Amino acid sequence: MPNTSAKTQRAHSHGGYGHAHTHSGAHRHLRHPRSSAPAGPLANPVYRRLLAAQIVALAGTGITTVALGLLAYDLAGKQAGAVLGAVLALKMVAYVGLSPVIAAFAHRVDRRRLLVGLDLVRAAVLFALPFVTELWQVFALVFIVNACAAGFTPAFQATIPDVLPDEDDYTRALSFSRVAYDLGDLLSPVIAAAMLLAVSFHALFALNGVAFLVSAGLVLSLRLPRGDVESVSERTWSRITLGARTFLATPRLRGLLALNFAAAAASAMTIVNTVVLVRGDFERGPSAVAIALAAAAAGSVTTAVFIPRLLRRTTDRTAMLSGGALLSAALLAVAAVPSYPWLLINWLVLGVGLALVQTPTGRLIQRSARSDGLPPLFAAQFALSHLCWLITYPVAGALGAAIGVGNVTLILGASCAVAATFAARLWPAE
Questions:
Q1: DSSP-derived 3-state class of residue 228
Q2: pTM over 0.70, yes/no
Q3: How far is Cα 101 from Cα 96, in angstroms, rounded to an integer?
């Protein structure tokens, strides 16, 4: 495949796994760019409501993260850190183990009913959380919430290409989603802190429950494409493993899998060790930690806004591999960062790299299956990317405490560089 332009890549990038070549499938997702200026995805009323549902749910989830920490401290006191660690591990287990299973059965259910049902279950659980009195109840309810998320997120992601069949519109939608995620991470703690001035943390759970009810209402008001559900004939186990098998059989998805690990190494470093670097090495206050995390989010948000324009000038492969190289450089440079301002610059670059790697992901998946194969593929991406985090979080945390943050940064940076190199080899330009 010539690598001279993004349009050339779009014209020739349908090579994939199994039935990805059928006329009714992969090709119906990609249309030639329109001759007139595109109206954009926000001109589509169905997509507008889906985006609104996503933003509402993300805001509620971010606020609940703060409330969950306070609930853990209320029930466990000084052991709250261990409780939260166990909750996060449980979350990853639910994501990795259940997402492909739920996707395997999702084709038997109307997609709108599935999304609404999962939102309603999550709302019910969150309304129940303020009344728990035992830690095992917290674990059980959190597992149910994350099991629903393991089914909701891939099904939601698989719906967007059907709603926006034009590739330029879909690319801009991916950019909007990335911005929504980053702004949610950035603003939710601020909103939660402001609310806690007026209400108890128990009210934050109720707020997220209301957010999921609003999300369910928005989805319920839509008529979503049903997809090619009639063509699905695989046995259950075959359907469960379909996404993983497609990843291993498709060159661009093998490259994506390697880049998932690179992104996980970088994000684990920022999430786990920013507080150690800022408070310990540079002896700054709590607000400086928030500013450092905001720098990474700012780099990601800014880059995501410009990615649709970038991908009209270059290929997905070039953009994503460039992001992997930036992540490697930013991580390896942490060990030599002399001051807090330089760390902010480093984290800004790291955010740029994360956006370059993660934002175009949906385009690669969209090109690798027809409509009925999209939910298993998005579920596989969801599960495999979280499996990478399940590996890199303990490395960044436990190993960093054992051998020092500087040393673990070198290990993660080298791992990131190796992963990016593997991605370039697994995903050939031709």
A1: coil
A2: yes
A3: 10
